[in-house]
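Need tokens for this chain, all 71 residues.
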Amino acid sequence: MLPAAATGLPPDWNYEATVAEVEAIVAQIEGGELELADLFDRFELAVNRLRQCEAFLDAKQKQVDLLIETL
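Here are the structure tokens for all 71 residues:
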């Protein structure tokens, strides 16, 4: 298993919790109740969280590829 440092994520990072956070942010944005500055801050946070998810999935894909190669 890849250590958290290999993905650049904190050791307590959780994929499902991060996806739920992004979904909550999207709901806030779609709700139309945010001030413009807050909207951009929330959007930036969502993008950062999605990048974390992408890094996690990429690292796991590499791990699976390596396991398949060793079979």
